[in-house]
Design goal:
By secondary structure, the protein is mainly β. The chain has one domain: Lipocalin. Helix content is 9%, strand content 57%. The protein is built from 1 helix and 11 strands. The protein has one helix at residues 2-17; strands at residues 41-54, 58-64, 68-72, 75-79, 84-89, 94-110, 113-129, 132-138, 146-150, 154-159, 162-170. An 8-stranded antiparallel beta barrel has the order 1-3-4-6-7-9-10-11. It is globular. Residues 1-33 have low confidence and may be disordered.
Length: 173
């Protein structure tokens, strides 16, 4: 029963955050894409929330912060470094998602949305429920576009039920 709950939670989480369990190991196709000058540089995540529902257990909002993004030459490098943990609580269980490594995309900004292609990932994730590991493996990401609101010192990436806020670390990567 617990494993079914976790798989449902993981499936719902990945659907909301754009993550999937499979990751391509192909090199990204670097596009001659336009990266808005505001996006260029390095960013640190200061806030992350992703809402989902776990069948039979109700809603869960995962939250946390710590990954970095670097935008340069039509690419985004998402770096979880030594590890970032996102946590949430359902009515019955504490859920944690721990991620390490890097995910690289080719990106383009069009109509206020970031579009992603050419995924390569050297990143892993562990999912725990009430302190017990229930899943571990490579992470990947979808190509679903995200709303991008870039201000001089802050960047917000969002879609319904998902929001990540970053602060600028450096203008040049």
């Amino acid at each position: 029963m617990r494993r079914a709950l976790i798989l449902l939670a993981a499936s719902a989480l990945f659907a909301v955050t754009g993550l999937s369990l499979a990751a391509s190991r192909d090199e990204p196709e670097v596009l001659n894409a336009q990266i808005d000058n505001c996006l260029r540089g390095q960013w640190r995540e200061v806030s992350y929330t992703a809402q989902s529902a776990v069948a039979g257990d109700g809603p869960v909002t995962l939250s946390g912060a710590g990954r970095t993004l670097r935008f340069s030459s039509g690419r985004e490098i998402m770096d979880y470094g030594q590890g970032v943990t996102y946590t949430g609580k359902t009515t019955k269980h504490q859920i944690s998602v721990y991620r390490t490594g890097k995910v690289i995309y080719s990106v383009r900004l069009e109509g206020g949305k970031l579009h992603f292609t050419g995924l390569t990932a050297d990143a892993t994730e562990k999912i725990t429920v009430d302190g017990q590991q229930v899943s571990s493996g490579p992470i990947g990401a979808s190509s679903a576009p995200l709303e991008a609101d870039c201000q001089r010192t802050t960047l917000t990436l969002s879609e319904p039920g998902h929001k990540a806020v970053f602060e600028r670390l450096a203008v040049k990567p």
